[in-house]
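Mods, move this if it's the wrong board.
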Amino acid sequence: MPRYTPEQLERRNASVWTKVQGILAPIQFLMFLTGVTVTYLYQAHIWIDNFYWITFFVILKTLMLVLIFVTGGFFEKEVFGAFAFAPEFFWEDFGSAIAMVVHISYFILFFLGLDETILIRTALLAYLSYLINAAQFVIRLLLEKHNEKKLKQRQTT
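Not the wrong board. Structure tokens:
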């Protein structure tokens, strides 16, 4: 079943927020890859020996997550009429909310003064929560594109 009605599809394709999301998503993915790499290099004692860098990249990743969540809300409002948790985007929003909670929990634990091992595990869990959410978003996007292609083929025959 397609996620978009023809009217919603038209609004999606015309929305500036669709383009913004298309720009921000790969940047967020690069921040994810960089954060995971920095965390690995720190744990392996290769090249990075200051824990500061792990926190720095968790901060960048969290800020990007917030930016994508807010701009995604504008997209959702424009296309579906709800800022968040529109039925058509429920699972993406739910996954983003989980990722947001895990990312923010890093800072709570950091300010509580927990040791590096727990913070590293929390950072990795935050990255994993993002990766799972991104994967389910990409899978749904690919399914949508497939459905749109089939719909166009039916319309031309």
